[in-house]
Structures are given as structure tokens and as C-alpha cells.
Write a structure and sequence with these properties.
α8 links the parallel β7 and β8. The protein is elongated, with a radius of gyration of 24 Å. It has about 450 residues and is of the alpha/beta class. It has 17 helices and 14 strands. The C terminus is likely disordered. The strands form two sheets. The protein has an eight-stranded mixed sheet with strand order 3-2-1-4-5-6-7-8, sandwiched between helices. A six-stranded parallel sheet has the order 11-10-9-12-13-14.
């Protein structure tokens, strides 16, 4: 039996070294817990072993190196060995979407199968914790049956693992902060003893100030999807209001968002209008929940509208650009920001990529800049666009500039910087520039009536 009188007496393994797996593993290791990280991608493991992070996530390199230097974070290339050497196994592999939006559980099935065979060949009671995002009933209808089929011989009753669902609520770009300061912990279980062990682990790490919800597998799985779908709904809602504001004189989406955000029934978070949500979570999770709901006989009309609204938002940005330059054909458009949000190099479902695609379809010439994501974008567009490591060179000769990501360095742009443009049309989708400090510039802000003190469109 797993004893948690002292958490440092136990060993924990993470299968999957992405943002969630590596960040959580590094945090546990920093707390003195012997933590093993494994992944099918050996080149990723090699980087981690040498103290390097295979993706950009602020402050994660510091956390990883604390564990490596203390000997509490161990990189293991053999997944079976990692499982057999641990008491608790977290599954943190990816659950990417199929083309139709439904969830691909290939990596979950592989990890579960490996765990079950590891227990079969080296019997020991373990906690198996599903931290990857999975649709409701995945644990009961897929994960448990896999384990049952492999451990179906007599003699495994005392060694049968406790299967728990423990969803993550991390934001890329803030993963370290969110891991250290969770707002909630959810434990889904059909095994009270295993749930209590995990509860005790978290209590020893975080104390008693973090609410821990104990519930069923299905509720835990759905909480994650409900959480992300609600956030996506708020974003699509405020973007809809922003698009209305853009067509009304003297309207300003930020004023409206601040006002309604003061209503305690609404709240201010996720009311920042912009080009639409992207990344590896919100788009994927909304689509996956839609497909899951349809598979059980329900058409989730609200979520379908949320998804459609978000898909449209990139066109709203392109329309602003076209309005500024009359015709996009042959025009030079500078795109500032390529990642799906600031403080990450992740371009999955980035709205910038959609905007670039629209611009190219309209025969525009596209120049791009981003502090972290240039190499990732090169793999997609190749020589179809120009890549710049310097903001000024990206702006030089442009007919229009679109600020797509609110990176801090873009907030510091001044008149002098825009003077290198051929025609000073600036589209600020996040409204990060101070219009009162800009002169002789056609400034267009998504969500405002777009009447410039110097010019108008």
C-alpha cells in the first residue's frame, strides 16, 4: 500500500513531457518528491535531461533545473521502467483532434496498455491518474476495460490499480504560476481509498487552502470541458459585441467590457475582445464536446455557435485590413505576433495563421515577426511569406500593420517605428497602443468605431 506520511518517500512518474506533464513533474520535484518524466519523443527527453525546455514556457527552465540539480527530477527513456519504479503514475499525453473535431485517444490507449502490462509483469499497487483531457465516459468505457482485459487473471485483486481522473487547468504562458497556485483540484474516482491517497498528496503539497472536489469519473471529465467551453463562450460573446462596436460611432468595447465585468454575475475575466481564441485547448475542447454531445444524441447549439463565431473572427481582422488599404492585392501587410497568445511559442490554432492564409488568398504580400514562433511558422508557410527577427524590418515598406498578439514589446511601438511604413495603416486587434501618443497614423482598433483623431475610415 502507498504510504503518504511523508510525500518524499514516494516516487511519481509522468507519461508525457508536454506543458502539463513537464510543468507538474518539475513542480513536484521541486518539492523534494522523486519524480520521473518519460515520453515517446526521445529528442524531447534529451533536451530536458540537459536542462533545456523543448518549448517556450516562462520560468519552466528554472523549475526543471532545480529538480535536475537536486536529483529529484529524473528523465527515463524506458516507459515501462518508469512505471515499475513509481508508486503513482500520471498520464499527461496529448489528446489531439481528428479532422472532424472528435478526440483522438490513441496516446491514452497506448499509455494505459503499457501501464497495465507493467503491473502484470511487476505486480504492485499503484495510482493511475488521468490528467490528460478526455471526454466523459473515457475512463469507464475505454481506460478501465483495457486494464481489466490485461489484468484479468486471478491474483491481481490486491494489486489492481486505483484509477483516478484529475484534470488540469493550466494556461500556456502561465503554466508554472497555475501549477504553483491552483484555483481548484478535482479528483474523480470509483475508488475511495485511491482518491484519499491523492487528496493527501495534494494537501501535503498545497496545504488546506485549495478546494478539492471529490466526484465521479464522468463529472471530473466533464468539469474540464465545461470549464473551457464556458471560457470560449465568454470570448465569442465579447468578440460579437466588439464587432458591433466597430460599426457604431463613439463605441468602445473596452468601456463596455469593463462595465459588464463589474457585475458579479458576469465577472471581468475573459472579456478582452480580440481576434478569437486559439491554442491547444479551447478550440479542441469545444469541438470535442460538440462531437461527444452529438454522439449521445444531443445537438449543442450554443457550443456550435461559439465555435462558428470564433472561426469567423479572423475574417473580421482581414476585413479591417482590406478596408484600410482598399484592396489587398499586391499590398504589403506586416503581421506582428504569430503564436496563439503572448508568452508562448505555440502556434496551434493560432488566429494569426488564419489571417495570413486569408491574406495570401487575396494575393497580399505578407511579412511576419514574432519573438518566439518564427521557426514553427516557417514549417507551415515556407517561402510564401517573409520572416523578420526585427520589428522595424518587418514594418519597413508595409502598407498595413496588424498587431495580432499583445507581446509586451509591441506595446512600446511609437510614431518613429511606424514611420518606416509605406502607408501608415495600423490595425490593433488588442488595443494595446495609446492612440493619444500616435500622430499621422491611420489607427484602427477592433471593437472601436475606428474614428482616428487624425484620419478615419
Amino acid at each position: 500500500m502507498i504510504e503518504l506520511n511523508n510525500i518524499t518517500n514516494n516516487k511519481i512518474a509522468f507519461i508525457g513531457a508536454g506543458v502539463v506533464g513537464l510543468t507538474t513533474a518539475a513542480f513536484f520535484a521541486s518539492k523534494g518528491i522523486y519524480t520521473i518524466i518519460t515520453d515517446k519523443n526521445y529528442s524531447r527527453l534529451e533536451l530536458i535531461k540537459n536542462g533545456k525546455i523543448p518549448f517556450y514556457e516562462p520560468k519552466l527552465d528554472q523549475l526543471v533545473n532545480v529538480g535536475l540539480n537536486n536529483g529529484t527530477l529524473v528523465v527515463e527513456y524506458d516507459t515501462t521502467k518508469a512505471i515499475q519504479s513509481s508508486d503513482i503514475v500520471f498520464i499527461t499525453v496529448g489528446t489531439p483532434p481528428f479532422e472532424d473535431g472528435s478526440i483522438d485517444l490513441t496516446y491514452i490507449k497506448e499509455a494505459t496498455t503499457t501501464i497495465a502490462y507493467s503491473i502484470r509483469s511487476y505486480p504492485a499497487y499503484k495510482l493511475i491518474i488521468i490528467k490528460s483531457t478526455v471526454v466523459p465516459t473515457t475512463t469507464s468505457k475505454i481506460i478501465k476495460p483495457i486494464i481489466d482485459n490485461i489484468l484479468n487473471d486471478e491474483g491481481y485483486e490486491d494489486k489492481y490499480p486505483a484509477i483516478l481522473v484529475n484534470p488540469e487547468f493550466l494556461r500556456e504562458g502561465s503554466a508554472v504560476h497555475d501549477t504553483i497556485n491552483p484555483h481548484i483540484i478535482v479528483i474523480g474516482s470509483n475508488n475511495g481509498e485511491g482518491a484519499n491517497i491523492l487528496d493527501k498528496l495534494y494537501r501535503q503539497i498545497y496545504g488546506n487552502n485549495i478546494p478539492i472536489i471529490h466526484t465521479t469519473w464522468e463529472n471530473a471529465e466533464l468539469i474540464k470541458y465545461a470549464n473551457n467551453s464556458f471560457l470560449a463562450t465568454k470570448i465569442s460573446f465579447i468578440n460579437t459585441i466588439a464587432n458591433i462596436c466597430s460599426r457604431i460611432n463613439n463605441a468602445d468595447i473596452d468601456t463596455i467590457a469593463n462595465a459588464i465585468g463589474l457585475d458579479p454575475r458576469i465577472g471581468s475575466l475573459f472579456l478582452k475582445a480580440g481576434p478569437g481564441y486559439g491554442g491547444s485547448c479551447l478550440p479542441k475542447d469545444v469541438k470535442a464536446l460538440i462531437k461527444f454531445a452529438e454522439s449521445i444524441g444531443y445537438k449543442p447549439r450554443l457550443l456550435i455557435s461559439v465555435d462558428e463565431t470564433n472561426e469567423y473572427q479572423s475574417l473580421e481582422v482581414v476585413n479591417l485590413a482590406e478596408k484600410a488599404v482598399s484592396s489587398l492585392e499586391g499590398k504589403v501587410i506586416s503581421i506582428l505576433g504569430l503564436s496563439f497568445k503572448k508568452d508562448t511559442d505555440d502556434i496551434r490554432n493560432s488566429v494569426s495563421l488564419k489571417v495570413i492564409d486569408h491574406l495570401l488568398r487575396n494575393n497580399a504580400c505578407v511579412k511576419v515577426h514574432d519573438p518566439k514562433s518564427i521557426e514553427h511558422v516557417k514549417a507551415i508557410f515556407g517561402n510564401k511569406i517573409e520572416y523578420h527577427t526585427n520589428v522595424i524590418s518587418c514594418l519597413t515598406g508595409a502598407d498595413c500593420c496588424i498587431i495580432m498578439v499583445d507581446w509586451d514589446e509591441y506595446k512600446l511601438l511609437t510614431n518613429k517605428d511606424f514611420n518606416v511604413m509605406k502607408d501608415k495603416n495600423v490595425i490593433d486587434v488588442w488595443r494595446i497602443l495609446d492612440i493619444n501618443k500616435l500622430t499621422d497614423i491611420k489607427y484602427i482598433a477592433l471593437g472601436r468605431s475606428n474614428i482616428n483623431k487624425n484620419d478615419s475610415i
